[in-house]
Design a protein that fits this description.
The protein is about 30% helix and about 25% strand. The protein is an alpha/beta fold and about 350 residues long. The longest helix has 15 residues.
Amino acid sequence: MDNVALVAITKHGVELVRSLQPKMPRADVYYMTKFAKGDETDRQIQMFEGSVRLLLPELFKRYDGVVMVISLGAVVRMIAPILKDKKTDPAVVVVDDKAEFVISVLSGHIGGANDLTRELSDYLQATPVITTASDVQKTIPVDIFGREFGWEIEDFTHVTPVSAAVVNEEPVVIVQESGERAWWKHEKPLPTHFQVVSSCEEALQQEFQAALVITHSLLSKSMEEQLLKNGVLYRPKSVYLGMGCNRGTTAEEIEQVIKNTLEEVGISLLSVKEMATIDLKKDEQGLLEVCEKYNWNFTYYTPEQLNEIKIDNPSDTVFKYTGAYGVSEPAAKRSAGVDKLLLEKKKSGNVTISIAVN
């Protein structure tokens, strides 16, 4: 974590955060003016007067993580009035004055406090204190499952009861229809109360108390009712769009074609990772605007690169104008690294779209 504030209010705490600064060069250091040593301006250290309590609301807005060399009880009392939500509050970590313990206090999973605690304990040779059940038991952290791969949770409603089922070792079915497979990070085998299946239909044949569903596909109403009544739906970034369009096509038209097409083929917009096209379109404003709006990767290939990819219906007309025998189909295949398309090609207005899944 880079966007971190290191805060101290005691003499020993000041020495501690100053020693951490070279190891965490992107972190900002804060301590009281009365402990000034004269080099604060050169080291870009922030000074403050009065109670640190007055500083905390601004730190909570500005930083992803706040590390305080202050007693745990004092920190709890100070941050209580400014807490909002586990998805938006920063990670809060406390270090004792002698740097013997580093304690994860707030936003352990989603905010990254547990990881920050481990990082700091390595720097300080201190004991990390982490109380999150899934970390202690070395099992699946439901609220951040697959986050390192870019997976998104579609609805947080059942995260807490599903997490309880996981840590209480109740039967849990894990449905994985797409997405990265290397998600089990521990040396021990996957616990026996987890059952991994490859489809939603197969999951319904299992006995389970909770479900983790990893898929790019839209679920039917019946499937949602059965799997997600105590389940969490993850959207892996596994969908690649091959795009072609007439010059000057608006972002609004491109976006609408994408949304309509994905709905027609039963794919979630949240699972789109990348848009690919020909290099002639690398400056096409409509394509660029859509990618920026949804934070999708934007990739383009030369005609020669596209012609290396086998497609079912090469077009002499497209070749005449672009130098490639196809744009959307080979772009989608090459981008996804697959030989088969989920959607070969659809022409709608000024837009042509192909879809690949890996």
